[in-house]
Every structure is written in structure tokens, then in C-alpha cells.
Amino acid sequence: MPSFLPRLTRIVLSVLLAVAIPAAALAAGFTVTMGRDFAATHTDRTVPARARAHPTDRIPVAVLLGANGSVATDVLGPYDVLADSSRFDVFTVSVGTDPVALSGGLTTVPDHTVTDVRDGTAPEPRIVVVPAFTDPSGADEAPLRDLIEHVHDAGGLVVGVCAGARVLAETDILNGRRATSFWSDIDGLRRSHPETTWVAGKRWVQDGDVMTTAGVSSGIIGALHLVQRFAGPDEAARIGARVDHPGWDSSTTTAPGIPAQRVSPADYPYALNATLPWFQPTYGLGLTDGVGEIDVAAAADLYGGAAFTAHVIPVAEHPVVTTAHGMRLLATPIDQVAGLDRLVVPGVERTTLAVNGVAVFLPKAAAHPGDSGFDPVLRDIARTDGRAVAATAAKYIEYPVPALPGEARIQWRILGLLGAVVLLAVLGAATPTLVRRLVRRRRPAAADTPM
After folding, report:
1. Long-range Cβ pairs for the range 189-198 (8 Å, 24+)
2. CA gap 62, 69 in Å, rounded
3. Which of 290, 292, 340, 276 is nearest to 314 (CA)?
4. Which has the closest alpha carbon to 372: 81, 91, 159, 130?
5. What is the rounded distance in angstroms from the CA atom of residue 437 to the CA atom of residue 423?
6. 296 with 288: CB under 8 angstroms?
7. How is the beta sheet containing 100-102 ordered, strand by strand?
8. Could you tell me the pTM of the whole model?
9. Helix (H) or strand (E) run with residue 229 in it
10. CA pair distance 427, 245, nearest whole angstrom
11. Backbone phi, psi, residue 112, to 5°
12. 363-375, pLDDT tens digit by residue?
């Protein structure tokens, strides 16, 4: 073999190992992050079926829950808005009755199953809200996709929230239509589903009996538009004033324009925090009966999702918490949890939830006039992890960046982990040379060994 071939082989191996080992570490970190983000809470307590009536004079709205997980704000935002109006009868539907995961570590119990809708136990939806599913094309979600098509074929309105458009794209209802989605998905959807005209830079797009919204928080404004359409501008103004979502105007029926975002180098906090979850602080997300759904979603999705600044664990005084409009969330009893670094209790200005020695943050108590549930959480992230982290998180939920504290925090945990990743790359690159030297040292010793 020519003498240059072994050297070339070592160089190629060094490059491959220098890339593959850090890449594997980052991929493992991302897997850990997603596992935490969609970690279902388990309880030994049997959660009974929700006892509730379905008034026949209201519009039945089914908010779908993916069997393998859904984005929390996609679900909780429209649910909060629509359920606050007496014009709608809002309930959740999943494939089965088992608790299902929402992002940010949340877990909810479905009100009904697809079978309930089919056999008349649950009302036939006239509106179906489709959030982002973790597996939009998966076999487990097939009954939900069938229900979407059934509602559409029966003349109902289908509403895709954020990457819920990916679920709709797995059906035929977007063929030949205009639609939108989460900004980072649009280019990929244009390639994979050219039969649909994908629109960027709009908070929502209506095409006949299909409505789609832009990323995450856009579902809130989309739902306010539905209130305006079906319940009138006064009702929409009332709920809009409570929600205080920037960009909502009850006096207009046109979709507001938003920045057509792109991935940029400034998004580095999102990538780093998502792929380097080790040694994160653990935040208890304190849940209380009657808490607003949007307030819960803002804290769960921002700390545990878009910013990835903490491992979020829902805690409460008891295992099942009922929100302001009747959604049931599971939590770990606070007297059974250990190792919390911080307790965040959304939606209240005072609380009895406490863990000895653990600092408590109340976003509602820290809110400014005109804030939605997202603003105080984003300001808190800016104070604890830096303005760049908070601004990037706002971008990734398509929420207008509020006035944030200006200090630039040094993320020592991230810097230390980045140093470890660089060290892995160096060790990977050096491995072929180290192995060669070790083999060379062993050869003379082997040659001197008596026969």
C-alpha cells in the first residue's frame, strides 16, 4: 500500500470522529430536551370522566389532542378564548381516554374520544381545532385525521394552529387552497406539499371552510377572530381585552400582517439550549384550580419549550387541577416533589404553594398594564438568562418582542457544556493518531517477547 494511504485514512477518520462524536452528543441532548418537553405526568389516581352537559344552542368545538403529544399553547390558547364565550361548547377530543402530553411538561385528560363523536356520546363538531402534533403523519393519529376529514366533509370549519397545518397536509383538505403555518415550516411545506399555496407574513389565512394560523401564539388571535365572526365584535372585544394579546383589533376582520421570519445566526440561544439540556435548573410549574389556560401555556411553553431554560415539572396541592374553563391537567403533589430550584405559579397574584427554601415567581403579580400572560415570563427569562434568549423565544412562538431588560447575561452552564463539546471534537480528531501510537509502542514489546 502506498505510504500516503494510511495517513489519508487517519485524516479522514479524524475528521469523521471530530464531527460525529459532538453531533451524537448534541443529538442525545436534543432527545433529552424533547423527552422532557413532552413528558406526561402519571398519577395512581383514576381520573373520572368529565361530567358536563353539552348545550344544544351552542356551536360545538372540538379541540384535538394528539395521542403522542401536542403543543400546549396551540391547544390552550384557542381553548381559553373560545370557551370564554357562551356562543361555543368547547371540549377536547383524543384517540383514547388516557392522559396525553402537552409541551412544557404538561399533561391533560381528554373530555372525549373519536369514538364518542362517532357514536353520538359527544356532539358532532361544527368547528375542529387542530394543534401541532408530535407525529402528524403517524398511525396513532389516523383516527384524528379521519375526524378532521369527517367534520370538513359535513360542512364544518377546520382550524389548523401553527404546525397543525402539517396534520391537515396529511389529509386532502388543503389541496388547492391557501394556508399558513409556523414560519420555519413554510419552506419545507412548499416543497413537500406544492398542491397548497403557502402564505408567509400573515397571522391567519382563511380559505373557505379552512382556516390556518401562523406559529404558536397566533392561535389566540385566530380564535379571537372566530369569536368575532360567530359571536360578534362586542364579545370579541371583551375577551380580547382580557387576553391582551398584542396585534388584536376587534374593529377589523382582516388578518394582521406579521414579520416573515427566517432562521438566522441570532437564533443561537434556541439551538444551544435545545441541544445542551444537562445541568438545567428544575422549575416547578405551580398549578391552581381556576387558573387561566393561556397563563399556564405561556409559562410551560416558554420556560420548557421555546427558551428551553429549565426542566419544568407541573406541581399542585393535588394530582388533578381544573383550569378556568374546565380543562383537567395532571400534576405532581407538591409535598412529593424534591430538587426544585424555583417555583413559578402562573395566573395568580398570591399563592399558598411553597417549597422550603425555593424562590417563588408569580408572573401575574409581575405583569404590567396591557401585558398578556407571555410578557412577564419573557421579561423574567431576560433577567435570568439574558435578553437574547428571551427575544429568540418570542420569535419562536411568533409573539411580538416586548420591552425587555437590557442586560446581557453570560450563560455559564452553556459555555461550560460548549467547552465539553469542543473537547469531545478534539479527542475525536486525535483518536486515530493516539491509536496508531499505541499500536506502534506495543509492536516492539511484542517482538521482544521470548517464544
Report:
1. 189/165, 193/169, 196/169
2. 16
3. 340
4. 81
5. 20
6. no
7. 100-102, 106-108, 328-330, 320-322
8. 0.93
9. helix 218-231
10. 49
11. -145, 165
12. 999 999 999 999 9
